[in-house]
């Protein structure tokens, strides 16, 4: 018992020392380390299948072209329905967000994370209700291991930050990209509503558009990528997530017990179903587990926009949608509020077990 306490104390001390540098994982890379600290080591056995279990020809995340929306909306809706039911993930092309906007947000994320450390330190915090927060690993002190990743986050809806509350390095990109994300989010909820056989406004009327949390990740090159992960296996604390990723790669989705690469596609956005949408659709749409591999090629840049109020006040009580229930399809989950769900999700941290299981009837 004493040995275990000592190990735990050592781990905490190392995490605290890492945290207090406020330099994040990038600070370790800047120090030119050749071996990663043990607090980043993933538990033995979880990295034995880092390569995809299947080839791209066997499984590929669906790609849906929105260019045909005006001509054949029903066809697009059918493809979204199929992807949401079978994969929980799909990529969208011709989504309407200009390539210049996508480039500017990625460049802005990189500029901030490669900014002078003293500038970044002024934004460092673990109070995730702040307008803009920079940190490394939101679950640094609760997770069994920590990931090779730095992040800044900002709530863009409701009550978005004023431009002057954002760092100059990423200000323009964040403000402009977030406007497009909210517009695309509205369209996606319309299409997903129609995919459920409901009116196009149904999901929006349930409050699915109430919040947008944007997390901008920076995955520095890792000297020992086989020992750690960029992001551990998890599902998302959202209704849907809109992800912009660069061309480095590393995102994988768990499909039919196999890890499948979500291969970067220029100009595309990755859309995935979150826990909340699986719950209110009573398992009609699925929120699947996914992860990001560490890599030597980095830095990898990604911007994840979670359509969810997360920890912000929201008194709406959610449960399986009555419009989808019947004697043959009774509710599988109890009612919940998003802050209640989020508090448990954050306490649990990113790990193998979906938080949805705690709400099953």
UniProtKB/TrEMBL annotation:
Gene3D superfamilies according to UniProt: B-lactam Antibiotic, Isopenicillin N Synthase, Chain
SUPFAM superfamilies in the cross-refs: Clavaminate synthase-like
Occurrences of domain Fe2OG dioxygenase (ranges): 210-309
Requisite cofactors: Fe cation
GO-annotated molecular function: dioxygenase activity; metal ion binding
Keyword hit for Oxidoreductase: yes
Pfam families documented for this protein: 2OG-FeII_Oxy, DIOX_N
UniProt KW keywords: Iron, Metal-binding, Oxidoreductase
Stored PROSITE patterns: FE2OG_OXY (PS51471)
Entry keyword annotation includes Metal-binding: yes
Positions in coiled-coil regions: none
Similarity comment: family membership: Belongs to the iron/ascorbate-dependent oxidoreductase family.
Protein's name in the database: Fe2OG dioxygenase domain-containing protein
Organism name: Arabis alpina
Higher taxonomy: Eukaryota, Viridiplantae, Streptophyta, Embryophyta, Tracheophyta
């Amino acid at each position: 018992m004493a040995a275990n306490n000592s190990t735990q104390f050592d781990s905490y001390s190392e995490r605290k020392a890492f945290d207090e540098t406020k330099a994040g994982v990038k600070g370790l890379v800047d120090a030119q380390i050749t071996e990663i600290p043990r607090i980043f080591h993933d538990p033995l056995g979880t990295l034995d299948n880092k390569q995809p279990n299947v080839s791209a020809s066997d499984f590929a995340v669906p790609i849906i072209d929105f260019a045909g929306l005006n001509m054949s909306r029903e066809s697009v809706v059918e493809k979204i329905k199929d992807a949401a039911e079978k994969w929980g993930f799909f990529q969208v092309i011709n989504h309407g967000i200009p390539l210049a906007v996508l480039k500017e947000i990625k460049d802005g994320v990189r500029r901030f994370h490669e900014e002078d450390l003293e500038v970044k330190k002024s934004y460092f915090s673990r109070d995730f209700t702040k307008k803009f927060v920079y940190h490394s690993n939101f679950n640094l002190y609760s997770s069994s291991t920590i990931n090779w990743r730095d992040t800044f986050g900002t709530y863009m809806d409701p009550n978005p930050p004023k431009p002057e509350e954002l760092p100059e390095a990423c200000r323009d990109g964040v403000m402009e990209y977030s406007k497009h994300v909210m517009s695309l989010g509205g369209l996606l909820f319309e299409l997903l509503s129609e995919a459920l056989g409901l009116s196009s406004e149904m999901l929006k009327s349930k409050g699915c558009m109430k919040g947008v949390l944007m997390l901008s990740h920076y995955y520095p090159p890792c000297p020992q990528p086989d020992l750690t992960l960029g992001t551990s296996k998890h599902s998302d604390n959202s209704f849907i997530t809109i992800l912009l990723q660069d061309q480095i790669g590393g995102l994988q989705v768990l499909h039919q017990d196999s890890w499948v690469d979500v291969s970067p596609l220029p100009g595309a956005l990755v859309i995935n179903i979150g826990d909340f949408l699986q719950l209110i659709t009573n398992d009609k749409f699925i929120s699947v587990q996914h992860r990001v591999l560490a890599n030597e090629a980095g830095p990898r840049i990604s911007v994840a926009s979670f359509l969810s109020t997360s920890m912000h006040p929201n008194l709406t009580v959610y449960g399986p949608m009555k419009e989808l229930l019947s004697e043959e399809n009774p509710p599988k989950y109890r009612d919940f509020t998003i802050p209640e769900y989020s508090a448990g999700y954050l306490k649990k941290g990113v790990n193998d077990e979906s938080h949805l299981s705690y709400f099953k009837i």
